[in-house]
Every structure is written in C-alpha cells, then in structure tokens.
Amino acid sequence: MSDHIKIQPASGKWVVRAAGAVLGESDDALKLIEGDQPFVIYFPRTDISMAFFDKSETTTTCPHKGTATYYDLVAKSGTYKDAAWSYEDPKGDVAQIKDYMAFFVDNVTVEQL
C-alpha cells in the first residue's frame, strides 16, 4: 500500500446514528487515513441497516481507491442525498475496504463507544 493511504482496524466498538436511529454498530470497523486529511471510519456493510439506504446515481473516482458509489439515507425526517459511500471494487492497495461503507459526518454521527 502506498504511504498516501493507511488502513488499520478501528479499535473498539463504533456506531453510526442519524435522524434518531442507530444505522449501524461494529467491532470490525476500519480506520482509513489518507494524506493529511482527517481519518474516516469504514463500517462493514453487514453491520449497517441497509434498509435505510438507497443507491444514488452519484459516483466519483479517486486515483488511489477507485470508483465510489454513493447512497442516499432515507429517514422519516427526509432524505439525505449522498450521505454515504462505498468502494465496491476498490484498487488492489485498498482492497480491505471492499464491502465497507463510510459516511459524511454532516449527515450522521459516527462515534466510538
């Protein structure tokens, strides 16, 4: 893996909440550090309540990770467009994040318990 991105287990239990609901909780989250950006917690999709999410049409491409697919968060209080993303076919150096999901913290709360 390049020095630009570091992936390590996120120690402890992590939770993601939004709109008054727990969307997921995991002991198997990953901490991704990219350059000098703040770290991002990636949750296994198996630990996320995917019923709250609809795949959006948005995609972006990262030269280091590949193509990201975005998801809208659908809650009683409304829909949060592109609230989460996932690399469904990440580049080889970051293959660990396949089947994991990350969240924009302006739409949800991600915290360690």
UniProtKB/TrEMBL annotation:
<feature type="domain" description="DUF427">
    <location>
        <begin position="15"/>
        <end position="104"/>
    </location>
</feature>
<dbReference type="InterPro" id="IPR007361">
    <property type="entry name" value="DUF427"/>
</dbReference>
<protein>
    <recommendedName>
        <fullName>DUF427 domain-containing protein</fullName>
    </recommendedName>
</protein>
<dbReference type="InterPro" id="IPR038694">
    <property type="entry name" value="DUF427_sf"/>
</dbReference>
<dbReference type="Pfam" id="PF04248">
    <property type="entry name" value="NTP_transf_9"/>
</dbReference>
